[in-house]
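Anyone? Bumping this.
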Amino acid sequence: MAGSSFGTIFKITTWGESHGKALGVVVDGCPAGLPLCEEDIQKYLNRRKPGQSNITTPRKEADEVEILSGIFEGKTTGTPISLMVRNTSQISKDYSDIASYYRPGHADYTFDEKYGFRDYRGGGRSSGRETIGRVAAGAIACKILEQMGIHVCAYTRSIGNIEIDYDKFDSSLITATKTAMPDADADKEAVAFLEDSIKKCDSVGGVMECVVTGMPAGIGDPVFEKLDANLAKAIMSIGAVKAVEIGDGCAAAKALGSSNNDFFCMTEGQIGKKTNHAGGILGGMSDGSPIIIRASVKPTPSIFQTQDTVNKSGEEIEIQIKGRHDPIIVPRAVVVMECMTAITLLDALMINMSAKMDSLLEFYK
Amino acid sequence: MAGSSFGTIFKITTWGESHGKALGVVVDGCPAGLPLCEEDIQKYLNRRKPGQSNITTPRKEADEVEILSGIFEGKTTGTPISLMVRNTSQISKDYSDIASYYRPGHADYTFDEKYGFRDYRGGGRSSGRETIGRVAAGAIACKILEQMGIHVCAYTRSIGNIEIDYDKFDSSLITATKTAMPDADADKEAVAFLEDSIKKCDSVGGVMECVVTGMPAGIGDPVFEKLDANLAKAIMSIGAVKAVEIGDGCAAAKALGSSNNDFFCMTEGQIGKKTNHAGGILGGMSDGSPIIIRASVKPTPSIFQTQDTVNKSGEEIEIQIKGRHDPIIVPRAVVVMECMTAITLLDALMINMSAKMDSLLEFYK
Amino acid sequence: MAGSSFGTIFKITTWGESHGKALGVVVDGCPAGLPLCEEDIQKYLNRRKPGQSNITTPRKEADEVEILSGIFEGKTTGTPISLMVRNTSQISKDYSDIASYYRPGHADYTFDEKYGFRDYRGGGRSSGRETIGRVAAGAIACKILEQMGIHVCAYTRSIGNIEIDYDKFDSSLITATKTAMPDADADKEAVAFLEDSIKKCDSVGGVMECVVTGMPAGIGDPVFEKLDANLAKAIMSIGAVKAVEIGDGCAAAKALGSSNNDFFCMTEGQIGKKTNHAGGILGGMSDGSPIIIRASVKPTPSIFQTQDTVNKSGEEIEIQIKGRHDPIIVPRAVVVMECMTAITLLDALMINMSAKMDSLLEFYK
Amino acid sequence: MAGSSFGTIFKITTWGESHGKALGVVVDGCPAGLPLCEEDIQKYLNRRKPGQSNITTPRKEADEVEILSGIFEGKTTGTPISLMVRNTSQISKDYSDIASYYRPGHADYTFDEKYGFRDYRGGGRSSGRETIGRVAAGAIACKILEQMGIHVCAYTRSIGNIEIDYDKFDSSLITATKTAMPDADADKEAVAFLEDSIKKCDSVGGVMECVVTGMPAGIGDPVFEKLDANLAKAIMSIGAVKAVEIGDGCAAAKALGSSNNDFFCMTEGQIGKKTNHAGGILGGMSDGSPIIIRASVKPTPSIFQTQDTVNKSGEEIEIQIKGRHDPIIVPRAVVVMECMTAITLLDALMINMSAKMDSLLEFYK
């Protein structure tokens, strides 16, 4: 099981590798009647496109999406939507080096152990380009959620030790800054830090955050299909993510119950919470407050310093990686986080429709 | 979908609530021929049993397991193993209070929103007693993994700000200390802290850690079924867990690539890594190093201080919770983490068997 | 994967074997708010109970169901419903014979090949008693469907060459005749045939038929999750079923298009069909006409004549089976077919709720 | 859930409609290391290609497959294999007629009921062209099974009342005759019958049969994932199939136990059966004998006679269908049956690998 499908009712199946002919996704279970065109998807893909600034890889890819099925007269038909992006900028360089050894921090060794060999060109299936399918599918999920009044927004929270200041939060900056930070000052500081890292042939990590507003309460299931459990899987499945937090996350471990409990209160006739340490999820189900998810992302493993490793013959060697690599993964991964969150929430909303006898009887009366 | 099943080949389905007749689990897909008796399972259940010390709930439950199916002549037959634990200590007190309002930090409100009403006795399905099924199933997974030379070990890493010292690590203490800490000094300090919290009618959080040794490399799948993604789901699905980290986890976000990359090296003729920042997983597949997972657990939401909340009529009220509650969740949850980890790994090992044509042809030759 | 779960949203997991302590089922994903008591389930179990007439096995079992979870104040809570039936009439006879050889027509040999050994007492997991879990779960599905105005009714269509006459069809006879035939004359004739077969130490096969009325149109999915495909799986998974037909079934292969096509027409302002060769399913989705399914059931493999076979040592031997066996499977399997049909339809109805954007937006507005 | 995925470990996801840009399939979970090129797949697609004789539709399609991912240096990598066939011969005719009414025997009405509207061009997703994805994926499954010594072979057993004579069975004729019959005389007779039907503007049905040899015993799971249950679903999911039989199928319902039971015997030191009424499956698991499956296929619903129906405004009308249609579905569907069978068997073989503790321990020792 190569594990390339995600979701139960709204199910996506991605395919493709860095240096293959194309990458894509099949979105199955999309409700019929959603207006959808290539531009709806392209604008999400453009946010993860490489080559957009001096702090991302100089690899240039058009990443133009083609809708191959599932749309008729401008609307989804309920049948699978097949989306494809052709690879255009694979450099047919000599990969014999990479083929022979295991790059630290990469999946070279684990691929060989699992499958006996690997497509070593540009990381193959473990390349960041794999996320093209996630983003293309997520663009559809986001469009549906928007129509339902649910807004999913991810951004860069920190790069290295530089963190955004929530007092300066300006969501319009997310797609305007190089770093996807919603704080102009933090962005400026982070870009300087990144430029310095590039000079030192090093890479840096960071934290992405995603906030969901408008989510109705009671979505998600108790026990194994908890909303936070599925979000944790969705986000941890993004390459390079090493931690997932909900609400206060790790900080909750040092808190006291008296300060960590969110008191319920009435706000404009609605039940709400005075605080949101829980991050919008209680007992695995949404509680109507904003859902808050954070992901810690490791530094790009491809660095240009000399590194120790072993080759396939079991010899210890020194290597120096070449190529076109981002000094940080976070800014381009933010849209991936947004998309995986949207896909997870939409699927949970669909699954939830038969939770009550009343709803079922009303639906089919 | 109440979401009570977990796993693909080794699949468990749990059932039962705090004050129902019984709780249990059906374990489907267990290989045939494993020697198994009730004692194998009971010893795991005993580790999560309430009433074992002054820092856990005084509720007394025998939690005796009964094997109802799937075993013949002392061995698993390959058919579903049904395990049941009868509830014996439900106090038939008056629950009319709890029924009418929403306890902060609990799933009362979200259950009502999802299902229209709830079994309010002792938390119903969202009670910590739900984990009995997980532990009973996990005991089987652990026994299988042990036979394969894979050892899963979870313990308490910190309580509030008190953290274990790895130089004092003694795994025999995990089941001997009240806190499940493998460090006698930290345990002593933590117990004092907990006793103080109990006096203050407050509760505290903590961190659990799980280390897996002996796992072969190449297990897990690229993309959505990454081993770390499935572990994140498994662990985040345990009630009260708010963050899951793999290896360096959150710390990776502040690291540089040059220090975060683990260099490969040769050790006794085997490929290994000089460090293990990755926590034993690269590209979603095990890399042969110990797998390291951490979970941050929030403080028990049931505290005896007066709290603000709302009732079902939408009135803001003050409440004071009564009952028998743990001042901390972590010590009894450690075995749950161990079990969910074991179930996830075993399933991944089974799924992996057909990854290579060579293996498939060899198996069926 | 022992394969003991069925369904996606309304998911059942059965367990137990002929001579184990008990058999049961966990029903997960049942909507909250359905009034449910043990009697609702018991009346279905009573229809499959052994020992009810001279044409069924004389084994006497109370088959009393116990609800262990998922019900609160007389209603389903949305959490898993665990149902259990204790075995009470296992005769602790000497099974060493059966253990050593392979009964023709039984799963003895295939179990040994798959698992290396088997629980040989009374067929173990491949016993007809396995269907207790299906029926207990199906009783719940039937109750929900009834509330939706959908009626599922199965009966015996033929035994050997004796077929019911639709002009004499009286549904009240289904639970009144020994054969579950809705035709008193055919029943009488069939009983005589069966009594003769018993004398000859032989067994006979038959055909079950299931008719569903009130099913809305458009349920089921194109391609792999076609409603008829899932019904075929559900019904073929009942032990001893060797063929499944929808509508005209096998006869369609000899028909001409001009006679097999059902013309659409208007009936009381509704779109209907002049005929129903299709059996209520077009393109994998319900078309609003009655759904018609037929299952051909082989004769009971346990016969009391001398038979040739081999033993585990690979020697050819002659055997004579002893025990308590039905001379025909059909009359007691009719309720199993009804239940599997109900479970399949209910799951399809639940999955269908998010098929249209309009419905999704309306549901969550 | 549009339901376009099939399989658990070897999982396929198909997409595309009759008059869209392309059709295709993603094959996930294919073992790494299988030599695979486009020609391996093309030869299967050619068997279902239209326009090959006077008894199939004159629509001409090249149906050329393109491999988009998952192959490296001529071998499968274990990652998803994306296969695409561009549509080239859609006639951009006026479909306004078809759009407005419901063709008898087609899925027009049920699509509208489910999704609110439909892609009416050439049947959209319910077109026979949907099977391109199944065949492309099945070609891979067949290649793997061949390497394991398992041979899957489907053919036309009967057309109308004309049935093949097993004494004249010549498997080389399957791909040589217009009808896919392995009997030259029956083929000749059937072609004459078909030509007559075409003249009469009518269509005919038929029976496909599939025989699998070399399957090891013990594959498939008890209860719901029975091998025959999954085969029934796989085959019933092929459009126009109305009945699925295993072994003697419907005839078993009229048999006596004494004649229907297959006696075990020893053949060249191996356990075998003297007869094969069971069709190679006992208790849901393969028994080592040839697996025999039959499918009854209804006549093509598109006929050129005048037919009654209703339009979307609810008016009863007369229609006359135009276009390019096969007078019989069977000859081109035979390869689809072969492919769906292969996919089902391969998945079952993969799932089976962890059935025994011994195998698991041996695999990972």
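Late reply, but here is one note on the structure posted above: The first strand of chain C starts at residue 5 and ends at 6.
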